[in-house]
Specification:
Blueprint lengths: L35 E27 L1 E17 L7 E17 L6 E17 L17 E5 L6 E8 L10 E18 L5 E23 L11 H12 L10 H13 L1
């Protein structure tokens, strides 16, 4: 049998068929709250440290490694905040260290290039400050289904039924990579008769410095409405709640990065 098997009645089209619409009526009303802004809010500054051991086999034997250029990039960064967890969240980080290795095969040979990607994955728990409360959704009629009595009032009318569904769209928490540093040791092995090697064993201490950011609505004047996120009151409460956890967060992210660079220069 050639080709893919499809079940009877199964459609291979990308989009579903459209129903016939008999009537549509629309009405829109706007409402304003003074002093409102929609801005990105920094929930946390994160320093993620990971230890990586990798093996690289060069395409040919090398006499000496001249330089290794490295670029760090995050391919995926997801923040998972459990509804029952108020101030903590799980972060799932997947990234790559791209390396360009330049080496020579002999004492007077040409300079050769070899590029390789070193992938890494990290999962850890971090503390968040004043993240928006996540709202759930109900898209199935199994929970909020409405039945109507039949004409004889002896049971439900099977030809008439209703439902109530709703969807809330929460703002995602995003990662903003600010800096990265790598401390690395390379070990050469598998030498030939004239002292050239072909394999490298790498040991890396990688530090990623990034921010967790979420777009939020903020209002300067709340007028006693607790349903409106007030900028001043909410930030004051967050600072009071965060006090036990902010002992090591008094300095800005840029100051911490600069301290890290200064330590490596010593």
């Amino acid at each position: 049998m050639s080709g893919k098997y499809t079940f009877p009645g199964h459609s291979t089209k990308k989009h579903c068929k459209k129903s016939k619409v008999k009537s549509v009526s629309c009405k829109a009303e706007s409402y304003n709250v003074s002093g409102g802004t929609y801005v990105p809010v920094i929930l946390a500054h994160v320093n993620l440290q990971t230890d990586i051991a990798s093996h690289v086999k060069l395409p040919s034997y090398a006499k000496e490694v001249k330089s290794i250029k490295k670029n760090v990039s995050i391919k995926q960064c997801e923040v998972l905040k459990h509804p029952a967890s108020r101030n903590k969240a799980k972060i799932f980080v997947k990234g790559t260290i791209h390396k360009n290795i330049q080496y020579v095969e002999s004492c007077n040979g040409y300079l050769r290039d070899y590029s390789v990607d070193v992938p890494f994955t990290c999962i850890d728990e971090v503390y968040l400050s004043h993240a928006d409360r996540q709202l759930d959704s109900q898209k199935s009629t199994l929970t909020h289904e409405y039945k109507y009595t039949s004409k004889k009032k002896h049971g439900a009318d099977e030809s008439k039924f209703g439902s109530y569904t709703y969807e809330n769209f929460n703002e995602p928490i995003e990662c903003v990579l600010k800096s990265a540093d790598i401390f690395e040791i390379d070990l050469t092995k598998d030498y030939d008769k004239i002292g050239r090697f072909i394999n490298l064993t790498e040991r890396m201490d990688v530090n990623l410095w990034f921010m967790l950011v979420q777009n939020q609505e903020r209002y300067e004047h709340c007028d006693g409405d607790h349903n409106i996120p007030c900028l001043k009151d909410q930030e004051k409460e967050a600072l009071e709640e965060d006090a036990p956890f902010r002992k090591n967060q008094q300095k800005s992210l840029l100051e911490l990065i600069q301290e890290r660079i200064d330590q490596l220069k010593l």
